[in-house]
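Hey team,

Sharing the Thiol-disulfide isomerase/thioredoxin run so nobody has to redo it. Sequence (178 residues) first:
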Amino acid sequence: MKAARRDTLRMAAAFLGLGACSLLPQAQAQDGALRRPWPARTPTPPVSLPGFEGPGFELAQARGKVVLLNFWASWCEPCRSEMPSLELLAQKYEARGLQVLAVNHRETDAALRRFVQQMPVDLPILRDADGAVARAYGVRIFPTSVLIARDGRAAFSVIGELDWTGPQARQWIEPLLG
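Structure output:
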């Protein structure tokens, strides 16, 4: 199963133009998720999204915090599988300034309500109703998470499902938390 997931991510990386040389061992988690550095001199797109049954979010107001934007959809099984570990990550690092946000991609209120009834989520859910924020961040595969440093600059993205409680995630996040 893990080999199949890794092969799928490699094909996706090829589709995105990352090429095989971008799949360096230190950039790939054991479960197959890919870490891709944010391109140098590429500005971090602004984020201003309404919340689903909660407050909205403005990236500009989060300066000083490390922000993890997790782009997901309820129909995406790897997204659903990853959600509990994202919640644990948020709880573990909240006191150190990590803010984890679940950015839902183009789903209706009804679909989100069904999802939350089936799988209660404590993370703030943001609505990317038209997919504009996902496009601005180059998201083409779900789940994709983008980590933004305290200075407001995107540091890297993680493409594919990751155990956010595991050692690889810790190794990637700790330097941002300082």
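Residues 77-93 form the longest helix (17 residues).

Ping me if you want the raw files.
A.
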